[in-house]
Design brief:
The chain is an alpha/beta fold. The chain has one domain: ATPase, V1 complex, subunit F (Rossmann fold). A four-stranded parallel beta sheet has the order 2-1-3-4, with helices on both faces. Strand 1, helix 1 and strand 2 form a beta-alpha-beta unit.
Amino acid sequence: MKFYCIADEDTVRGFRLAGVDGRVVTSAPQAATAVAALAAQPDCGILILTEKVAAGIRPQLAQIRLERSRPLVIEIPGPEGPVPGRRSLRQFVEEAVGVRISLEKGP
């Protein structure tokens, strides 16, 4: 299984340094085309998109998440930071598990 990143140039460049292939997109139609092409590849296991890119193709991502077991679609903050008002991954986990996660180190 392979990871792919679909995002702005800086994010894709950073993921390429970590060995993750990617496609630079600057518009929702470009993002939709890239997602369709990569999701159709049999080795695509995880698609990583910035929140900004994902916001432009939300219906397409919802369809992938509902109808397919693969690829897993992951949304990350872009260079501009997280989208205001959006829950973080930590908040989702805390709600699901019912336990607060602390990042503080013990004594």
